[in-house]
């Protein structure tokens, strides 16, 4: 069986139950989305922090964050602050993501959380 893989590093745990390979590939095909994903890999970031770090308009960042979240590539949480405003923050939702292209045009998505699951597969389609 011929295959090739793409791996992207990350942090934290996630829920990849609904990860569709087409949605994941579509999200990763966009330069801005990849830059935002890489920024959120280093630390959890708010949309404004992503916009500043990636030099992308805030409205675009919100769309990309939605796409990355829908693809199970980012997790959303709340940043607790002393003030009443608790902004949403985003972090990568995996340690390793592998996309495999097999004979017959089948695409498999595999998420792994090495720190939390000892490297076992959390999702494969």
Automatic annotation (TrEMBL):
> Which residue ranges are recorded for the region named Disordered?
1-24
Task: Tell me one Pfam family matched here.
Answer: HTH_20
Q: Which residues form the signal peptide?
A: none
User: InterPro entries this protein is in?
Assistant: ArsR-like_HTH (IPR011991), WH-like_DNA-bd_sf (IPR036388), WH_DNA-bd_sf (IPR036390)
Q: What is this protein called?
A: ArsR family transcriptional regulator
């Amino acid at each position: 069986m011929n295959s090739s893989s793409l791996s992207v590093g990350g942090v934290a745990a996630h829920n990849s139950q609904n990860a569709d390979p087409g949605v994941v590939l579509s999200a990763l095909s966009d330069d801005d989305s990849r830059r935002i994903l890489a920024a959120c890999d280093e630390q959890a970031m708010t949309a404004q922090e992503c916009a500043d770090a990636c030099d992308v308009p805030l409205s675009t960042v919100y769309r990309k964050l939605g796409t990355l979240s829908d693809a199970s590539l980012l997790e959303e949480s709340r940043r607790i602050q002393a003030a009443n405003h608790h902004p949403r923050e985003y972090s990568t939702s995996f340690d390793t993501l592998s996309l495999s292209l097999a004979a017959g045009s089948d695409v498999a998505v595999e998420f792994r959380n090495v720190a939390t699951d000892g490297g076992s597969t959390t999702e494969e389609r």
